[in-house]
Amino acid sequence: MTMARRPVHEIRRGLILVRVWVKRSKTGPPFTLSVLRLYRNGDEWKESSRLGRDDIPVVRLALDEAHRWLLQREMRSQ
Prior knowledge:
By secondary structure, this protein is α+β, with helices and mostly antiparallel strands. It has 1 helix and 4 strands; from the N terminus they run E-E-E-E-H.
């Protein structure tokens, strides 16, 4: 049975979600990021990688917070 990978950290600002993933490769940076927009289709919540103009400021804020989290984690590991 294979377990699904889970992000090591998530940042949510409104409908914007940034997920931080541990990279399985031994070369390069140890983390990758995904940026998603949540939306509702009837009663069901879904995710999309498509963003609108008004999402950009919120994405910038969430990515800045993700960057800070990564830097803090890096400083703690030294």
